[in-house]
Amino acid sequence: MIIQHAEKIASPETVQQGFETLNYICSDAIATAVYLACQLQKPILVEGPPGVGKTELAKKTAEYLSAPLIRMQCYEGLDEAKALYEWKYGKQLLYTQVLKDQLGDVLRGAKGLDESVARLHQFGDIFYSHEFLESRPLLEALQAEQGAILLVDEIDKADQEFEAFLLELLSDYQVSIPEIGTVKAVSKPIVFLTSNNTRELGDALKRRCLHLYIPFPEPALERRIISSQVPDIESDLRNQLVAFVEQLREMALKKVPAVSETIDWARALLLLNIEHLDKGWVEKTLNLLLKFQEDIELVTPELGKLLNAAHKAASRP
Amino acid sequence: MHQLLGDFIHALRQADIPISTAETLDAIRTAQLLGLEQRPQLKLALGLVLAKSEAHKHSYDIVFEHFFSAQTAMSHDTAVEADNSDSTVSVVEAGEAETVDESSVEAQALAEQLQSPLALQLMAGEGSQMASAIAEAGQSENVNQIQFFTQKGRYRYRIMQQLGVEALNQELLQLETQQSLPARQVLQQLEQRKLRLSEQVGDYVEQQYLLYAEQKNQRQFDQNLSQIKLSHIDTHHYQRMSRLVRKAAKQLASQHGRRRKQSKRGMLDVRKTIAANAAFDGIQFRTRWRATRIERPKVMAICDVSGSVSRMARFLLLFLYCLQDVLPKVRSFVFASNMGEVTQSFAKQDLEDALAEIMNEWANQPTDYGRALVDFSGLALDQIDRHTTVIMLGDARNNNAPAEAQVWEQVYRRSKRVLWLNPESRNSWNTGDSVMASYAPYCSQVEVCQSLRDLQRILGGLLKLN
After folding, report:
1. DSSP state of B397
2. Residue in chain A lying closest to B56 (CA)
3. For the CA atoms of chain B, what is the radius of gyration?
4. Is A287 a member of any domain?
5. Could you read off the pLDDT of A57-105 as tens digits, one per residue?
6. End-to-end distance of chain A based on CA atoms, in angstroms?
7. Do the chains contact at A28 and B30, CB–CB below 8 Å?
8. B436 pLDDT exceeds 60?
9. Which residues, in sequence order, are CB contacts of B79 under 8 Å at separation 6+?
């Protein structure tokens, strides 16, 4: 794509700092991935557990590069008509009705069917032209004049056929529409694909992308993330809750809390004016972190131990 | 740079990371963008381009460290050694300078007269030059094609030859014949440096072996392990085998995990189309298509854990455990004489605990197929319907007890399919107390299942069939 501010992607470090000013704290790997995606003009496939900021990455990139974000949420049964384009059937019908008289004029005097059809042919495929094309996210991204950020969210939820259909778009930045021909990107978009790994993606797709795996952040990074998202929080409390969540992630839970849940929890604790993690409050707010009753039942008896360890870990520098 | 990246990618491929040519080109462009100097950044960036899954990223990290640390270590080592040797030489020279000043001067003169290029190189003591010479010789001998550890000696020898050790040896022999002090000094130095050179070459070959061949050998080993008879596997390979079984089960899961959906292709289903369009006055608006729908089977698996199959039982149970992950509706049963359902204990416990518990509770009894089958009909017969596939893993060695084949017949009549996997080879069926013949008529399929590969093939077929 045409990047208006080339200096913004001069090096991975610049990207990292730029993201920081937008309140998105990212690791070196993420910054390098964005840098490479811009420089090499390649899509990024972002994988990782839910809630580590995969979608957010695309949004921030769009904000950072001041480009429009075009988002396509994938789901089972998604097909070309919903992802790429559709003909405006209603408009086509309406126009044929309105133009009925004109058509009559055109055809007046034509002898026989052959001549009528020949006359109609002179007008070309009026009803199958760009005016009647309803563009969906993928086509929109290709047609964006200034380039765009295309976010194909949760690609693993879409069918395998759709994945195969994406290949042409991802490698050549073009798609084929039978009635019109091949549509090439006006300016190549930067594509983010996210996946939660509910199924293994095809090798062909992976080969065309940079592969970025975002794991749960290190405690130090997570503390910085919390500070930037919830700036009013006391550093003591922040360290305690990061250490606490860190321990939860080690347990055999059905769904371990992600960064987004830690942030929610931090906001909740701030709202409740809690300065120090204690058992009572943690028990009451645990449902913000854990989304399954079984998990909550598993953690509750361990709370005392976990909190002690969290306090200890937090008091260490 | 191209050479370096090419070697690196070769090493990655050996470590089972599939890297296409397109990705290689990407890697080169990445390296051009970022340069090779900043190691951590390069590691991140190449990782994004080359390793495309979590498992691959893991092996990528290992290979990267291996490859680049070996690269730097080589040039570094030799540089340090060169420094050291220079200093020792100068110490020796300094120490002896007063007493045998003349001889050292003569020795120098003698050293300058050396003929063979290798000797000159060694005396010059240029560590980095030596390292690159070794690497060059290694390349011309194609050391990165190394396959087995037994080849290390051969490659070491050939690299030394390539470096011109022959001429050096000639020279050394010549020096030995001379009796003078300076000649002996030079001889000593040369021999020491030659030893160090051969050590360096040894290290180089070792490193190349680690990079290019170790993984290959492991893979070979895994392959052999999956073909070997399950009953012949050594205890100390259990760990490795469990890993392979899991891998096989996961492969099956990813191949068959998704139910194929009805799609708009194939033949028009006239009956359904007419029915669907009844509301439109018989005008055919909506088409309905015939499509084959592959459902995942409902499976009941029964596993013999008695003494006669004890060596296999572990793997069969292991596979049963993994099968429960693959197929959503698996019920697992084990027996020796009594039969019990273990679906729950598989679902709740992790593998090791579940296996230990099952072996403890059920295994220490004499085999009695008849009794077990009666138990089975009590436990599950009424839930077997025309969608159910029953899999039996056992050797049909019954300790001469009644076979109760009529129970098995009932199972066969009610179910969709009955599969008997026997861990013994066909020749030993129906010998001794084996009563395979009385059960075989009531099985849709009887298979020999001796190795992991058999198991994979049979179950793959099961999942594919409708």
Report:
1. B
2. A211
3. 35
4. yes
5. 999 999 998 889 999 998 887 877 788 888 887 888 888 788 888 878 8
6. 44
7. no
8. yes
9. B127, B128
Sign of the alpha-carbon torsion through A179, A182, A186, A192 = positive
Full domain range(s) for residue A50: 6-76+145-213
Q: Which of B18, B30, B57 is facing A40, going by the closest CB pair?
A: B30
**Range A133-138 average pLDDT:** 87
Residue A168 near residue A175, CB atoms below 8 Å: yes
Cβ–Cβ gap A28/B33 under 8 Å? no
Domain with residue A174: its CATH number is 3.40.50.300
Residue indicated by tokens 């130095």: B189
Quick one: DSSP state of residue B113?
A: T
More confident residue, A242 or B226: A242
| Contact status of A32 with chain B (Cβ, < 8 Å) | yes
Here the ipTM equals 0.81
Check if the beta carbon of residue B317 is closer than 8 Å to that of residue B358: yes
Distance from CA of B5 to the nearest CA of A (A): 18
Same-domain status, A179 and A237: no
* β-pairing verdict for A133-135 and A85-87: antiparallel
Q: Is A223 found in the same domain as A203?
A: no
- How large is the angle between the packed helices B101-112 and B181-212, nearest 10 degrees? 50
Of B20, B33, B254, the CB nearest to A200: B254
CA B339 to chain centre: 36
Put simply, whether A29 touches B (Cβ < 8 Å) is yes
**Record: contact A36-B48, CB cut-off 8 A:** yes
pLDDT digits (tens, 9 = 90+) for B43-91: 989 999 898 888 888 889 988 888 887 766 655 554 444 444 444 444 4
Please report whether residue A299 resides in a domain. yes
Q: What is the pLDDT of residue B463?
A: 67
Per residue in B18-44, pLDDT tens?
888 888 999 999 998 888 888 888 898
Count the residues in chain B: 466
Q: Which of A210, A193, A209 is nearest to A157 (CA)?
A: A193
Residue B20 DSSP SS3: coil
State the Cα–Cα distance between residues B422 and B431, nearest whole angstrom.
14
